Amino acid sequence: MIDLRSDTLTIPDRSMLETILTAPLGDDGRLDAEGRGEDPTVNKLEDMSAALVGKQAGLLCTSGTMGNQAAVLTWCRPGDTVLVNDLQHLDRSEKTAFDPRFGQMKKAVYHLDENFQPATEEIEDQFRTGSIKLLCLENTHNYTGGTCITEASLKKIYDLALKYSIPVHMDGARLFNAALYLKVPVSQLCQYVDSVQFCFSKGLGAPVGSVLCGSKEFIKAAKETRKLMGGAMRQAGIIAAPAIYALEHNIPRLQEDHDNCATCAAQLQNLKKVIVQKDVQTNILMLDVAQTGITPQEFCARAKAKGLWIRPIINTSVRLVFYKGITRQDALNAAAIIRELDAEL
Questions:
Q1: How far apart are CA 44 and CA 216, in angstroms?
Q2: Going by DSSP bridges, is the β-strand pair 132-138/81-85 parallel, antiparallel, or unpaired?
Q3: What is the DSSP string of 149-192?
Q4: What region does 76 belong to: left with phi over 0, alpha with psi -120 to 50, or beta?
Q5: In terms of pTM, does the model score above 0.70?
Q6: How far is CA 122 from CA 79, 128, 135, 193, in A?
Q7: Residue 288 burial by CB count (10 A; 0-12/13-18/19+): exposed, middle or buried?
Q8: Mind listing the pLDDT tens digit for each residue in 40-85?
Q9: Are 60 and 236 spatial neighbours (Cβ–Cβ below 8 Å)?
């Protein structure tokens, strides 16, 4: 079975897992006067992560959802209005900030333009209302097929945010994929946001964890938020050690995932009914199955019966995600199954 449901399916290799056995550990939940925990491996990871994205401090979280929601709940309070994209993972999947049981925040929406860049005119129109307390971006953008916000767009948006004194948070779950595609350091992209979250457990291949980065003052407050969310941990170095290994070894290999995704897309030209994503940028490939006469769920079920495990996504689409452990031959075989399905419909 070729499993392309998500890059969260990466399995840590032995070398990564062995780092846990020798990692110095401590109680990350016991803080010193500066708000640092006692686990030296966690502290090392947080410092490495902050340095990579050009921020002052980092905060290890168990998931991207926790990192994003800790950020939003730190920047905002119940009743505040958060500006999000209409297909943003932070809203569509995570939901916490806008749930009446939890964050109790209001939502305003902007869209992406034809080049998958945030529509700056819409963003400024929302800023002019005076009600926006936080702007959220997503890079890469999950539900549009791993598309990237360019440095030029980020700068334009951040200049607007500064003009209206509105902080910017970026969900950078796949930030390193974006930086690779755009051919710029992650710190160059992150200079245009006030806080950023990225995941270790997707393309970077670690088993658990994400990190939230920002100013020292912001991260100190976010640590309190994380505690309220049940996110304070003890010997969390067993999570941090594989994540450190990922940062030290697995960033360059993301190109393999991009190449395999492009290989699969190239084999799917001129299909009869399935419409293939045109602008394939990173490790995600979207297929529109609206013209097939079956639902995305049924399309995925038929693909699974042939040996390809994929998942339905927004409205009429299905998604293929390439990651560590998926080979070029897997990409070719996946394309062959999609072509076979298309021919049958």
A1: 15
A2: parallel
A3: --HHHHHHHHHHHHHTT--EEEE-TTHHHHHHHHTS-HHHHHTT
A4: beta
A5: yes
A6: 22, 10, 12, 18
A7: middle
A8: 999 999 999 999 999 999 999 999 999 999 999 999 999 999 999 9
A9: yes
